[in-house]
Amino acid sequence: MPILELENLSKTYGGTTALKGLTLQVEPGSVYGLLGPNGSGKTTTLGIALGVLRASSGTVRWFGQEPTAANRRRIGALLETPNFFPYLSARQNLLLAADVKQADTRSVDQALDAVGLGTRQHDAFRGFSLGMKQRLALASTLLGSPEVLVLDEPTNGLDPQGIAEVRSLVQRLAAEGKTIILASHLLDEIEKVCTHVAVLQRGELRAAGPVSNILATADRVLLRPAPDTPAALVQQALAALPWVSDVRPETGGILSAAVAASHGPADVNRALFEQGIVLAGLEIRHRSLEAQFLELTR
Ligand SMILES: Nc1ncnc2c1ncn2[C@@H]1O[C@H](COP(=O)(O)OP(=O)(O)OP(=O)(O)O)[C@@H](O)[C@H]1O
Q1: Strand 31-35 and strand 279-285: pairing?
Q2: Does ligand 1 come within 6 angstroms of the Cβ of 37?
Q3: From the CA of 45, how far away is ligand 1's center (Å)?
Q4: What confidence category does residue 206 fall into, taking pLDDT thresholds of 50, 70 and 90?
Q5: Of 6, 106, 261, 274, which is the most buried if we count CB atoms within 10 A?
Q6: Summary count for the chain: helices (H), strands (E)
Q7: Centroid of ligand 1 to alpha carbon of 12 (angstroms)
Q8: Which of 20-34, 208-222, 245-259 has the largest mean confidence?
Q9: What residue stretches are annotated with the ABC transporter domain (predicted)?
Q10: What integer is the mean pLDDT of 34-59?
Q11: Contacts of 193 (CB under 8 A, 6+ apart)
């Protein structure tokens, strides 16, 4: 059973449409990334999923059920930076947060250990680095041992070391079996920490699935047919190859096509030659992940 199911969610703020018919499912054990540029609707999606915002239409199901207070306790969330007291220690701050959540003291110790702040727990919050502050914020989401964590831009505003700390923490928590849903505008971050991704653009879902499928480095080949060979014939032959997709005519009589990672330009050449098609030129163009992300959100 999916951990979270969003069905046909839409949200308008006055005249602004923030989400348009968003449907997605998060399976248990996945690290699910919501990827999109600023203003694409990531925060709105998480806010609706957590019941902080009301959808204009659509449904949210957690653990196969309508949202309930009991279900909500199975979810730890970090939508905005919590207000910790600067003069209190990390531990005192978490004890206060635990009190609000009705979590026990043992869960405070576990959370401090989980984020690697056990040895610094008696130090005042104000002396912490940005990365440590964010790790403490993550510790507060762990109070009460939720099965699911929902994190909005967890590395935003951190320096490179803080970013590395938070990312490795997210990976560790996922390895321990937590399902994690996180929003980010950074492709690189999603690629590093997520198993699944939904790409949002202007409130619409552009693509969703395993990171390896959606953001795979699909290379393209550029081919120039020999002068006596009609491009349409080559296009047809290419389209018939199961490991070739997205065959497109480019300018100057050139064709381009995406080739699955299992095959290379030599396979393209051989397959065409076997059908009596001779090429005057063949070139491979490696596409960066950035290029694909830009293409998806173009
Ligand atoms: N309270 C609000 N009132 C009016 N418009 C809003 C409000 N909150 C968000 N929006 C608009 O809804 C759209 C989606 O915003 P949202 O914050 O969900 O995007 P996001 O992908 O999380 O972006 P960011 O990373 O900048 O937070 C944007 O056009 C934004 O301006």
Answers
A1: unpaired
A2: no
A3: 10
A4: confident
A5: 6
A6: 11, 13
A7: 10
A8: 20-34
A9: 4-227
A10: 94
A11: 31, 33, 167, 170, 171, 174, 182
> CA angle, corner 289, sides to 284 and 293, nearest 5?
120
Give the CB-side neighbour count of residue 125, counting CA atoms within 13 A.
18
Q: Which residue has the tokens 């306790």?
A: 73
Is the pLDDT score of 55 beyond 70? yes
- So what's the pLDDT on residue 292? 64
84 vs 88: CA distance, rounded Å: 8
Q: What is the mean pLDDT of residues 133-153?
A: 94
Q: Please report the sign of the dihedral spanned by the C-alpha atoms of residue 296, residue 149, residue 188, residue 186.
A: positive
Give the number of other CB atoms < 10 A from CB of residue 30. 21
| Structural domains present in the chain | 4-214 (3.40.50.300), 219-296 (3.30.70.100)
- Asked if 211 contacts 263 with a C-beta cutoff of 8 angstroms, the reply is no
Strand order in the sheet with 196-201: 75-78, 148-152, 179-184, 31-35, 196-201, 204-210
Paired tokens of 216: 């795979």
- Spatial separation of the C-alpha atoms in residues 5 and 88, rounded to whole Å: 39
Q: Which residue among 6, 42, 52 has the greatest number of ligand 1 atoms within 8 angstroms of its CB, and so is best to mutate? A: 42
**Mean pLDDT value of segment 90-109:** 93
Bridge partners of residue 197, in order along the sequence: 33, 209
> What is the b/e burial string over 34-70, where b = at least 16 CB atoms within 10 angstroms of the residue's CB?
bbbeeebbbbbbbbbbbbebebeebebbbbeeebeee
Q: How far apart are CA 49 and CA 119, in angstroms?
A: 35
Residue closest to 155 by CA, chosen among 178, 171, 174, 175:
171
Cα(174) to ligand 1 centroid in Å equals: 28
Which residue is listed with tokens 């163009």?
Answer: 285
- % pLDDT > 70, the chain: 94
